[in-house]
Write a structure and sequence with these properties.
It contains two helices and nine strands, in the order αββββαβββββ.
Length: about 200
Amino acid sequence: MRLFCLIIYWFPLYVYAQDSEKRYELLPPESKVLWHGENAGGMGGHDGTLQLASGKLVTKGTDLLKGDFVLDMTTIRNTDQKDEKSQRDLEAHLKNADFFEVDKYPNAFFSITKALPLHDPLKPNQYMITGFLGIKGITNSITFPATITTTRTAAKATAVITIDRTKWNVTFQSKTIFSAIKNGALADEIKLTLDLAFIAR
């Protein structure tokens, strides 16, 4: 009888825990965003880092309900240039109006609108993520696969995303918009590699 009473007492709490929303807050110092841009034709290019200012994921059971992130565009850094002056010059160029115009648009934003579990036994915890990415005041929808794992106390998310910069009016020496450029044209694609850490709140 006592066991039965305990089951009756704890079962509603278990169901509530399974059905309640859980929030995970980004840990910026433990999270990484790497970027890569190439010259047109894939010959050469540049690599660097970018920092996230904030972020969160909200789950319910095994479902990912939503997520919101703020990227600090003023933190764009180059990592492939060997000398300090070249590195500073490239970073300054990426921050000016030719590229991301960070004085006017210091932040970029991403909001998850849909997270579809892929249910692939070879790729557990993988989702197809759809959301809105806002850069330079322009918002576009993007879709990409991501691996997201959660525990009672923490979460981790990894993804590789390729975006077409021209959709956000980043057109400097674009190979498609300025097709007459023979030398120095840049690829439109920017690859972002994400490795994000979260703590449960």
